[in-house]
TrEMBL record, chain A:
Membrane topology recorded in Swiss-Prot or TrEMBL: Multi-pass membrane protein
Entry annotated with the keyword Transmembrane helix: yes
The protein, known as: ABC transporter, permease protein
Biological process according to GO: transmembrane transport
UniProt KW keywords: Cell membrane, Membrane, Transmembrane, Transmembrane helix, Transport
Highest taxon of the lineage: Bacteria
A GO cellular component annotation in the UniProt record: plasma membrane
Keyword Iron-sulfur listed: no
Transmembrane stretches, start-end: 20-41, 91-111, 123-143, 172-197, 218-244, 281-301
UniProt main location, coarse: membrane
UniProt xrefs under Pfam families: BPD_transp_1
UniProtKB/TrEMBL annotation, chain B:
InterPro entries in the record: Bact_solute-bd_prot1 (IPR050490), SBP (IPR006059)
Matches recorded under PROSITE patterns: PROKAR_LIPOPROTEIN
Pfam families attached to this UniProt entry: SBP_bac_1
Statement: the UniProt record of this protein carries the keyword Calcium: no
Keywords: Signal
Record-given protein name: ABC transporter, solute-binding protein
Signal peptide: 1-20
Automatic annotation (TrEMBL), chain C:
Similarity field: Belongs to the binding-protein-dependent transport system permease family.
Protein name in UniProt: ABC transporter, permease protein
One annotated GO biological process: transmembrane transport
Cellular compartments annotated: Cell membrane
PROSITE patterns: ABC_TM1
ABC transmembrane type-1 domain mapped to chain residues: 78-269
Domain of life the protein comes from: Bacteria
Species whose genome carries this gene: Roseburia inulinivorans DSM 16841
Amino acid sequence: MKDNICKKKKSKLGIRRTGFIVAFLAPTIIAFCIFYLYPIITVFVTSFCKWDYSNITSPEFFGFQDLWNNYEYIFKKYPFFWEALKNSTTWAILGAVVQIPVATLIALALSRKIKGIKFVRNVYIIPNMISTAAMGVIFLQLYNPSYGIINPIIRLFNKNFTDNILLLKGPAFIAMTCAYIFFTGTTTLMILGNIMAVPEEVREAAMLDGASGLKQDWFITIPMIKGTLKTVSILAATSGFLLYNEVYFLTKGAAGTYSISYVIRELAITSPRTQFGRANAVALIQILAGLVIILVINFVYSVSLKKEKH
Amino acid sequence: MKKKLVSVLLVAAMGASVLAGCGSSSVKEDGGEKKSESSGNNVLEFYHGYYQDESEWAAAQVMRDIYDEFAQEHADGDVTFKPIAVENRDDIVSAQVAGGSFPDMVDVGGDGIPQAAISQDLVYDLKTYIDENNLQDAVGLNYTQHDQDGHIYAVHDQIESRGLWYNSSIFEKAGISTDAFTDWNTFGDAMTKIADLGDDTYGYIAGQGSSYIVNAIMASTDAGKKMVESELTEDTVNSDEFANAFKTAAKLDQANGSEHTTDDNGNLMAEFNTNGNVGVLFNGVWNASGIDASLVDSIEPALFPGNVAIASAGGGLAVANNMSEEKTELALEFIKYMTSKEVQEKIFTEVQANPCNTTVDLNALAETSGDTATQKLAEACAQVNSADTIVIDMKYTWGSDVDKAIVNALMECAVSGTDIDARFESLQKELLALIG
Amino acid sequence: MKKSLHRKTVNNLPTGTKIVTYICLAWALIVSLVPLIWLVLSSLKKDPMARPGFQLPESICLDGYISTFKDLHVFRYFGNSLIVAGISVLISVVMISMSAYVVARMEFKGKKLVNILLYSTMFIPATALTYPVYNLINNLHLYDTRAALILIYSCSGIAVSFFVIKNYYDNIPRELEEAARIDGCGYVQTWVKVIFPIARPGIMTAAVLAFLNNWNEYYWASLVLITREKLTVPALLSTFTTAFNTNYNGLFSAMVVIILPPVILYCVFSKFFIEALSGGAVKG
């Protein structure tokens, strides 16, 4: 009898629990299905279809014989794919390896009580309020060889330098990277928020142990904010991988600076021979690469967590 | 305190979402009305790209006024003409086309009508109307250039006419005359002389501009001209004509310097039109209205070396297929109106563009206007219209992706020390992949 | 007590740490101020290209600002953007803080799948979204309405907000919920009364990020809105680029004007914001 009541209570709770889960998940899932699921399926299916300007409303399945037609074109014929993949991957790695440490250091600095720190904190996020498109326009001016500010600086070291750095293979890539990589305002803000949430007692205890300053940060603070670091690493790597506006505004792909997003847009939109099928083959690769990025970062962080436990 | 804040936040959030719900439903209603209105066959929506404020670009206001006038003239009709200024009509058109529809009427820019729209039979064939109403002269270049296997899908009220502009006082200083425009060798020599002047003065604005060098060199031989006038083929990519055109342009660009190179003329144009430290600018006739007052006496129009002009109908007015008879009729009426002498004169004098109607007497108009910019424009238009060789902008026949690949390759060649032959070989591969 | 502790923290910083801290702060200032100062300087020059770089303007030219405010109905754009960005941020943040809670805290079938699917949304290119979403908007008869944009913004950026918020939930000790449950709170109540307030810093961060994104978003805005009266702020920028030249003075002035509202909003709220950031989470 007693058992029965317990069970009843439990199952009632179970229903309630399920109801709660469903109710709380539903809005997001609906939004997801409308906005993303259908496109994901479309991307997947049509990447195996002939789908271009000649049959725009009726993609045509290649058949199993020619299943990989679009991929073959992308891998073997399309001249910019490998370059784009290499660039995008580099930007993704730079996001996680350069942006995150820089953002963390600045967040740590901003977490200390120093006069005027609020000012720095507020100023640092302003560049992130300017849209990347507008930033692209600004940097295009800064890099301009005739009236920008970069060439005069280079000329201090190399008097005869007159070339447009956005057209030099190598420097162009670096110049584009510099146009976005230092603006970590929002990332810093997220890290800072988490640093400040580290309980004072923990720091106090650490101080008694003799750890202070960066040492304290390294051994106490950083491990406590690992969750956030992982999240922002993923976000930074992702936005690096998806870089588009900088390519569009600064080089339009000249001097070996194509990115995956730029290739997709080029195939699907810019080309008068609209190539949705091929664009979606690249898009599928982009989605898969994104999942790889997430897996890798998850892996790196879980390994480092395990190490700590040992 | 915290609790209060949270509850306030929550209430605000809920309130907002409820409001949003109401808002969206009420907006939805009037959105719905609009839709039914347009599909109810009494509104002809016309998308165009002249959205700029008058203070930014006076010509945009002139075009809007021209459209409004037509709307007023036909205010009593069954169908209302409704011009709508939009900022990226090309994106809107391509989004609609991918969904299997086409705007009632649109002034297509950039790359012209998407092939996808034509292959779906979404665009009205204007040929019969033009023939029946004897509008051949009124539509001018459109009649031949926009002819696709006997169909005409667009009529552009302005002809995109390109030659070059040069700064005669810089030429004088460098000791060169217009003989520089005899051929591309003399042109190259002239540019070197200008660069030798020093003081930040240089030959020409390369990059986007140099794609017109390729275009013009191609047109200087019969075989090359034919290649530009048709789709890009493997034979063209591998032809001597193309190799010669590209390498000549690339060499000129390299001598000119990569710091004077841009993928968008607009980025550097002020150096020619305002600062006056550039010898030559490859730009359309419309540049007449962009010349600063201080330079108006020294900047003159000319043709590309070898007496070549680049003129294209480009995009233009396109009408949707399968509209009601009344709507189609009004749309056609509008095309007749836009190519009529009266409107075309306005397009010349006020919009400062080369009108498509060949019966307009540009010089007479320029003289009566007495405005220097208009006179310059008339001169430039006259030169283009009477050039020995008139060729289409290869962007329209070869596609903007090909054009961009060529511009990118040229820009990279402009960097001192670049191996032009090697870059050309990789360009060939790129182009073959793009058309494959 | 607390105050003295803080002071101690500053003074007790080892010299190395102090140096690193000041270097970081100096770097932060340089990086953010260089483009900013350049932008403001350029916006005050009549012809930014004639006096490039960091040269001071010959005379201060406010033409760009004047025309931005006078001819271009800036406040109309601001109003539109505030409505669209504001409402969609509220919707999406509430929606996602609900689902992120469930995923962070509850075990259920398909949880992994939900996670993976939401992750994958970050990598779907806009081109793949364009046509389905465009057709959806048309079918709902929302074309050329602000509601369409609100709908799009509420649904886009799910992944980022989800990440940020879920990460904060993960930091909250489970004991807090258990305590609430013992006090007799239901699931919903626990979330509303206990979790939501504690996770506020994360939710606020997500909201700020989403707002900035929506404020600057132009692709969708230009695609679904036709009527000029409804356009959002980024459309201002395209006004200065005509077929054959760019009015840089106007363009830069408009850029400065565009970033002003978020900057002001941020400065006004930053006090509350930082308080929320430092006062929230784990402490409980």
